[in-house]
Amino acid sequence: LPDLQLAKAVEDAAFQNSIEKRVMYLARLEEERIKVVDRITDHQSRVKKIFDKKSKQRDFQIGDLVLLWDKRENKKEC
């Protein structure tokens, strides 16, 4: 019977250890996710800044002809 109790204690300790490892993994995963979100946000702001620097302001007057893009006509049918 002592061997069975020892085996149960070892099994419980191993289970507890695996839970702790999983919690630590999830914590690191959340930290990495936050870092990636920050990097994406920084990259998007840099791209926007470059685009805005190169783009020109366009002023339209009433009566000017403009091209109206219809997204419904360009949908690909599967």
TrEMBL record:
Protein name as catalogued: Uncharacterized protein
High-level lineage: Eukaryota, Viridiplantae, Streptophyta, Embryophyta, Tracheophyta
